[in-house]
Design brief:
two-stranded antiparallel sheet
Length: 158
């Protein structure tokens, strides 16, 4: 990454003005002290800029790793989509993965044959995003009482 160089001309202007007025009664000690103060400010500013540029370099480097990680995650989810017939939707700050998981009639227990998709999803997400927040939604058949179906859907999501 290329570094930006700043001209010190703007900072040196007060120094030149001080030197120019040195014949007007400014004491050498006062001028030396002012020059030392200006040098110190310039060094502090240079160090702050160097620190900021180093942080930016590290952030850019971590973005490259993040991109690779996202690519591997998307590959894992794509494989799951193909194997289990799910749908993937990329949102602004999230990924939505919809996969059919079925329950028995009037049951909140996942069928044994549908556990594989949940186990595989859990392994993909825990590998790439162990701190991710997962939202699970459960639904019920529209037949029957609405209150009962809402409660069944909640139990299925749990």
């Amino acid at each position: 990454m290329s570094r930006i160089r700043f001209s010190r001309g703007a900072v040196l202007a007060p120094v030149i003005a001080i030197v120019g007025f040195s014949g007007c009664g400014v004491k050498q000690g006062d001028m030396d002290a002012e020059l030392a103060r200006i040098r110190s400010e310039m060094q502090a500013g240079d160090q702050a800029l160097a620190d900021r540029m180093d942080r930016t370099d590290r952030e850019v480097a971590s973005m490259a790793g993040l991109s690779d990680r996202i690519q591997r995650l998307e590959g894992g989810l794509e494989t799951m989509r193909e194997e289990f017939g799910g749908q993937i939707e990329q949102l602004q700050a999230a990924i939505r993965f919809n996969s059919p998981v079925h329950f028995g009639y009037d049951s909140d227990q996942v069928r044994a044959e549908d556990r594989a998709v949940l186990n595989r999803f859990a392994s993909v997400v825990s590998e790439y995003y162990p701190m991710a927040t997962i939202t699970v939604e459960g639904f019920a058949d529209p037949a029957g009482d609405a209150t009962y179906n809402i409660n069944l859907g909640l139990r299925r999501a749990e």
